[in-house]
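User: Watch each token:
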Amino acid sequence: MSIVKINALTVPAEQRETLEKRFASRAGAVESSDGFEWFELLKPLEGTDQYLVYTRWRSEADFQAWMEGPMKAAHQGGGAAEGGERPKPAATGSQVWTFEVVQQAGPKPA
């Protein structure tokens, strides 16, 4: 079965728009990775300042290959603002959770 990675990002209210724009501009960055199955950016509506970045992968090995390849390259070399400086992170904290999918269901056909 698949694995799910959830990155819980602590994002102050004044940085929410920045975070959402950065994710919108990265559209397509993970979708062509081998073993990638799904992505969602979940915005908190109440009770927390944590966004959840949900990704689903065929295996832990596929996730690690993406982390060591495309993701690492994107976070090291790209994204420099004018003047050559990298933009300040929108999140003030991050915690990654890993889950194995043991049951799943989708809508039943009509």
